[in-house]
Every structure is written in C-alpha cells, then in structure tokens.
Design a protein that fits this description.
By secondary structure, this protein is α/β, with parallel strands linked by helices. Helix 4 crosses helix 5, helix 4 runs parallel beside helix 7 and helix 5 packs across helix 7. The radius of gyration is 19 Å and the shape is globular. The termini are far apart. The structure holds adenosine-5'-diphosphate (ADP) and magnesium ion. It holds the Pfam family ABC_tran.
Amino acid sequence: MNDMRPLERIVDTDNVKITAKNVQVYYGDTHAIKDVDVDILANTVTAFIGPSGCGKSTFLRCINRMNDTIDIARIEGNILLDGEDIYDKRVDPVQLRARVGMVFQKPNPFPKSIYDNVAYGPKIHGLARNKAELDEIVEKALRRGAIWDEVKDRLHASGTGLSGGQQQRLCIARAVATEPEVLLMDEPCSALDPIATAQVEELIDELKETYSVVIVTHSMQQAARVSQKTAFFHLGNLVEYGDTGDIFNTPQDQRTESYITGRIG
Ligand SMILES: Nc1ncnc2c1ncn2[C@@H]1O[C@H](COP(=O)(O)OP(=O)(O)O)[C@@H](O)[C@H]1O
Ligand SMILES: [Mg+2]
C-alpha cells in the first residue's frame, strides 16, 4: 500500500506522446481554454468531443502551435512532445509542424498538381536527395492516404480537381509525407459523404499503428468508431478524459452524460 500512486499516473505512462500541463488560451479577454491537463498517448486515436465553441479546435491548435498564427491568441502553461516543451524559444514552429501534422475540416489542397501537393513538405524539409527519392516519398504517402490507385495515372493533374473525399485523402497524404509523429485532425469528415467518411475512418485506424492521432469530431458515433481515448470539453474545460467505451457507457460527470445523451449540444 505504501507505493500507491495517483491512478492516472499508473496508466500507460511509458506510452505518453504529448503532455499538456495547466494550459490556458485567451483570445483577447475571452478565456477559451481553462486549466487543461492531459496526457495523449502514442499509437492511439484520441477523440476530442463537446458542444460547438467549447474549445476543441483551440486546444488542438495548441499542439502544433497553429494558434501562433492568430494575433490575439495567448497561451499559458506547457505542452510537452516526448517530454520537451514545444513552446521553448529554441523550437522552430515550422519544424514542429513537420513532426505534428494537421488536417483541416475543409479539404485544402494547394492549387498545384497532386504530385506537388505531396512533394511540397518533403522538399522544404530536405527529405529527398534526388527526383527518384522524391517520387518514392510521394508514392508512399499517397498509398498511406489510400488514394494512390485513384491518382497514379494523373499525378500532374490539379489537386483541386479531385472530389471532396479524394481531396481530403490527398491532404492526409500531404500531412503524412513529412513522416510526422502526431497527426491532428479537425473534423476531417464533416465535408464528406458517408462513403468517403468510411474511407477516412479506415485510414485513421491504420495510421494509429505509426502515429498518435488526435481527432476533433462532433459525431459521437465517429468518436466511438475510431478512437480508443476520448476527451470531453465543455466551456473551455476538459471535463472528462478516459477510455472511449467508459466515457460513452459510464460517464462520471453530469455534463458528459448530458452531452452524450443529447441534452446539451
Ligand atoms: N480566432 C479567434 N478569435 C477569437 N475568438 C476565437 C477564435 N477562435 C475561437 N475563438 C473563440 O474561442 C472559443 C472556442 O472556440 P473553438 O476552439 O473554435 O471551439 P470548438 O472547436 O469546440 O467549436 C469560442 O468562444 C470561440 O468564439
Ligand atoms: Mg472547431
């Protein structure tokens, strides 16, 4: 009994990829994220759920410093990636975003060819020594994005000419091309039809073999299908975090229960 430690510290501590400690985010006077503490695991899909405006996207953007691009956003606290503070002055946000990739709600391919969309990141990060290596990286990323077969004969056609579902898988291929360790996805299926959604969900399941995946979703069915861990946010607070099955079946907090049973949203 002497060696009892707080419960959450016993669980999976070796597998922690990201740790948030006492994170606050302000937009001017708006306190959008309040006292968030959480450990996000490697090789795991973590879902962020909660009512619109509760801070899911804001907190997601903390993890690759995308909030740096919003003038009025101010962040306090610490976010550690493999134990290192990503807000340290020595960290270059562009390098960080190669390690922590992001996929947005609306597919946003560059107005370039399919090939150049995927080759862009590897080029700026110097990941290929020659054209043959770059070709290989592009093919591998498109295969991981589960879109290779559909585009291999038209790699030099425009990325923006693809269907919505294909564009989103292209954006996922673009995000994985730099070999990130973490993939952040902000409602990646909200612009997609059910078939494209199923394809992206299958892909997310495969990606967790290699990455830590964090997905914001307003679909509780989707959270239940794709994630192993779920975090419920409400009015800027992380109210409850745990195994997805537990959050949905035996929520501990009244606010979580109300949300998942449809009483707030
Ligand atoms: N760029 C911004 N400027 C000012 N306020 C913002 C900005 N982005 C989000 N907010 C505010 O922060 C809060 C959380 O928003 P957000 O993170 O987008 O929530 P969610 O993704 O859960 O819908 C909301 O009150 C929203 O109005
Ligand atoms: Mg959002």
